[in-house]
């Protein structure tokens, strides 16, 4: 696939110089097709272009996903709290679809996903996404966001669209230093980055290197230490006698001369430390042949927090170790590696691109300030809880040729994928009896004095550990036709075969017609698919526990789709999701400097893969299983919506003003459920209201951004308002249904060129300190969560200063 090449700014809030505005019509877009002669307004499908260097100079946000969240209305990413690994990798969505229904490319090549499965009832529950934060902002030239189904061109995952990240290839040097802090004096952020590019001694050769380090401090967003509803009151609610449990804790507090202030509860954004090193290089041997390579390494260390365990929880707390109870901490070490090597050859208007792209993501878990209560006083307080790893290697051959008004392209792809779960320390997962022996199904529950495994995050056991792989082979062809920039037609087809579930054939047709100069109608229709990820097929973390009746040892947790328990309940082997995409839109340029695009879309997905609610069934008893969750092709969905983008540049008062308005409306509905015939459980247990809520109403249906950016002399001013529409959160089975009203977040910044090469920018994200509505009490875990991590999240106001250097 050719590299995508464009350098304009869409969705503004960024000044575009007069010279650059004149070049907009000449620059071209290739994402979504392999015709390199089209401008942005000539594409049959919508494409957003984000010039990262310019927007990052004035924007408060410092990571790729946060930047996109405030300039692409159909893109959403919210930080989660107390959500295990999901605290450390933010799930992101496009057009209301799942994180795994967005394909991410780097320099036009498929990027690997994370090894993490989201299963803590957050946005994207049951999905596996791509961690955009592993790519340093300072290494990126621009980002292209294709808002249309593109599986026929790029393969699996491209149901909602494609995000293509283009790395810098310029020579010279630049650097950036950033400091920020929330209005509550937490969440302190440091970020420093350096980019350096140089020639490799030959014309058009280059190597570009980027180094970035950052640290984000934790935040605390509990009920302002209101101690009457403090901390872990929900623990009392689950006790056999909540009143007696609370009284017991009060007695401990009085006896030790303590107060409830000594039991503050840490809930908020996790602490994240990260270091990244990326490169991008190309060397032409002659006018026809060149080699290229790019990739990088990222290491991320995170620290999040679980729910507090109180003194009265004698089954969970070893009183001799933690006489006052404890709050566990979940640490992560995430290693991400990627590289691509390729060769391009061009002769007689034929273009050949052969490449190999590798990626690996490893997520290690460490639990601290906790205990394995079944070991009593012998329990460690820190545990290595295991790891999971995902590896992907892709070989591509792409061939294209321009013939008069036609551009033909074809090629093939071979991809190998591997997923691994590594066991943790025995103490992190095992449950022991009073004699120090690991429990079995025949162990009497009376011989167990406490809960097994590391409290807050149960380690992976040998029964969970595995290594699985698969491969896929694909061939594709597409043809585009351009007639004097008035009529554009694209047709594409792709056949793909997977070693684990079979084959799929997909096609797409897209058309644009300019009926009056600068006024055009465009539309597309196509089919798509998403292969079940290896993570969804094989992730499991089942564990031994005492049955709810207290009469024996049972197994609970998440089970593999191919497990005996899943087969007994009648779950089919996972297969691909299939989709039908349709879009219709208009592009307008009524006058110089004014660009308008309006696009509606419809996406139908059949056999969408989700994780079920917690299922209990008599059928499971014969396998010693009391309850479990399973991945299944459980639902069909329909998503419809519209995108509007307006951008206008003009000269005002001796300066240049860019105004941009971008909005999105998206609605997703579940149209059908697929229950195993012999499951014998109600829908609320198979896929409950809370799970339906995550799919349909937990993300804003409406989101819009109005940005004004004014540049004059050495000054630059930004004012941007982002509207987050209402969301609904269902606290089933323990809470209620709550509607969160719409909110508007205001970003401001002032930039000044200290010298020709040095710029200082100060400003704020969420200047007016806007939060989601307070949670209703029954959804707040009895007062712990003051705010839900929805809409703009729970950071509040954030103030920053940034120095940018160019040499």
UniProtKB/TrEMBL annotation:
Pfam families in the cross-refs: Plug (PF07715), TonB_dep_Rec_b-barrel (PF00593)
The family this protein is said to belong to: Belongs to the TonB-dependent receptor family.
Signal peptide per UniProt: 1-18
Protein name per UniProt: Iron complex outermembrane recepter protein
Cellular component aspect of the GO annotation: cell outer membrane
Domain TonB-dependent receptor plug: 40-162
Keywords for this protein: Cell outer membrane, Membrane, Signal, TonB box, Transmembrane, Transmembrane beta strand, Transport
Domain of life: Bacteria
Membrane topology according to the record: Multi-pass membrane protein
Annotated InterPro entries: Beta-barrel_TonB (IPR000531), Beta-barrel_TonB_sf (IPR036942), Plug_dom (IPR012910), Plug_dom_sf (IPR037066), TonB-dep_rcpt-like (IPR039426)
Domain TonB-dependent receptor-like beta-barrel: 324-767
Location(s) in or outside the cell: Cell outer membrane
Upper lineage: Bacteria, Pseudomonadati, Bacteroidota, Flavobacteriia, Flavobacteriales
Chief localization: membrane
């Amino acid at each position: 696939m050719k590299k995508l090449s464009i350098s304009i700014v869409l969705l503004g809030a960024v000044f575009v110089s007069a010279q650059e505005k004149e070049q907009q019509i000449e620059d071209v877009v290739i994402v979504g097709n392999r015709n390199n002669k089209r401008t942005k307004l000539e594409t049959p499908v919508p494409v957003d272009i984000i010039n990262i260097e310019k927007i990052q100079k004035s924007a408060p946000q410092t990571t790729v996903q946060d930047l996109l969240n405030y300039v692409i209305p159909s893109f959403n990413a919210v930080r989660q709290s107390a959500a295990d690994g999901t605290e450390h990798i933010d799930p992101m969505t496009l057009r209301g679809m799942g994180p795994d229904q967005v394909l991410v490319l780097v320099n036009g090549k498929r990027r690997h996903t994370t090894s993490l499965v989201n299963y803590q009832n957050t946005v994207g529950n049951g999905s596996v996404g791509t961690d955009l934060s592993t790519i340093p902002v300072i290494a990126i030239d621009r980002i292209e966001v294709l808002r249309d189904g593109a599986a026929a061109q790029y393969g699996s995952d491209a149901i909602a669209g494609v995000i293509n990240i283009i790395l810098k290839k310029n020579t010279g040097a630049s650097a950036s230093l950033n400091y920020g802090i929330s209005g509550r004096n937490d969440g302190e952020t440091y970020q420093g980055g350096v980019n350096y590019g140089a020639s490799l001694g030959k014309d058009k050769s280059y190597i570009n290197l980027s180094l970035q380090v950052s640290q984000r401090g934790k935040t605390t967003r509990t009920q302002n230490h209101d101690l009457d509803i403090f901390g872990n009151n929900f623990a009392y609610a689950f006790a056999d006698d909540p009143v007696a449990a609370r009284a017991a804790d009060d007695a401990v507090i009085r006896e030790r001369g303590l107060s409830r202030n000594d039991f503050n509860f840490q809930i908020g954004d996790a602490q994240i430390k990260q270091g990244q090193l990326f490169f991008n290089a190309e060397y032409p041997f002659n006018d026809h042949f060149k080699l290229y390579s790019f990739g990088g390494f990222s290491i991320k260390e995170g620290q999040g927090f679980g729910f507090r365990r109180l003194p009265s929880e004698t089954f969970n707390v070893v009183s001799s170790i933690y006489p006052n109870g404890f709050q566990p901490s979940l640490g992560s070490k995430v290693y991400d590696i990627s590289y691509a090597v390729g060769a391009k050859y061009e002769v007689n208007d034929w273009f050949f691109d052969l490449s190999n792209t590798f990626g690996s993501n490893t997520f290690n878990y460490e639990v601290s300030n906790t205990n394995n209560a079944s070991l009593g006083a012998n329990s460690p307080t820190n545990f290595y809880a295991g790891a999971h790893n995902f590896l992907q290697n892709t070989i591509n051959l792409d061939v294209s040729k321009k013939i008069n008004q036609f551009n033909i392209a074809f090629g093939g792809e071979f991809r190998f994928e591997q997923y691994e779960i590594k066991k943790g320390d025995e103490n992190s997962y095992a449950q022991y009896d009073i004699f120090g022996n690991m429990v079995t199904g025949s162990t009497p529950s009376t011989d167990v004095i406490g809960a097994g495994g590391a409290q807050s995050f149960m380690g992976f056991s040998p029964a969970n550990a595995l290594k699985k792989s698969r491969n896929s082979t694909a061939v594709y062809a597409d043809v585009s036709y351009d007639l004097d920039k008035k009529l554009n037609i694209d047709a594409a087809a792709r056949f793909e075969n997977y070693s684990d579930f079979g084959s799929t054939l997909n096609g797409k047709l897209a058309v644009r017609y300019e009926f009056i100069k600068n006024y055009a109608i465009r539309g597309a229709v196509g089919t798509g698919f998403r292969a079940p990820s290896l993570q969804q097929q094989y992730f499991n973390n089942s564990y031994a526990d005492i049955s709810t009746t207290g009469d024996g040892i049972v197994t609970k947790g998440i089970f593999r789709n191919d497990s005996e328990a899943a087969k007994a309940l009648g779950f089919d082997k996972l297969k691909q999701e299939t989709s039908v995409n349709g879009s219709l839109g208009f592009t307008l340029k009524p006058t110089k400097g004014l660009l308008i695009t309006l696009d509606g879309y419809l996406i139908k997905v059949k056999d969408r893969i989700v994780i079920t609610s917690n299922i209990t069934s008599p059928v499971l008893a014969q396998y010693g299983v009391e309850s479990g969750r399973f991945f299944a092709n459980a639902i069909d969905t329909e998503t419809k919506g519209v995108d509007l983008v307006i951008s206008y540049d003009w000269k005002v008062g001796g300066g240049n003003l860019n105004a941009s308005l971008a909005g999105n409306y998206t609605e997703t509905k579940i149209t059908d459920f697929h229950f195993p015939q012999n499951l014998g459980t109600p829908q609320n247990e198979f896929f409950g209201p809370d799970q339906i809520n995550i799919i349909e109403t937990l993300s804003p249906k409406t989101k819009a951004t109005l940005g004004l950016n004014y540049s004059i002399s050495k000054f630059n001013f930004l004012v941007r308002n982002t509207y987050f529409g209402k969301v609904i959160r269902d606290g089933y089975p323990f809470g209620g249904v709550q509607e969160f009203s719409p909110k508007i977040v205001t970003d401001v910044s002032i930039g000044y060129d200290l010298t020709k090469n040095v710029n200082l920018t100060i400003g704020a994200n969420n200047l007016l300190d806007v939060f989601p509505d307070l949670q209703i009490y029954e959804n707040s875990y009895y007062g712990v969560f003051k705010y839900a991590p929805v809409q703009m999240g729970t950071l509040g106001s954030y103030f920053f200063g940034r120095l940018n250097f160019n040499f």
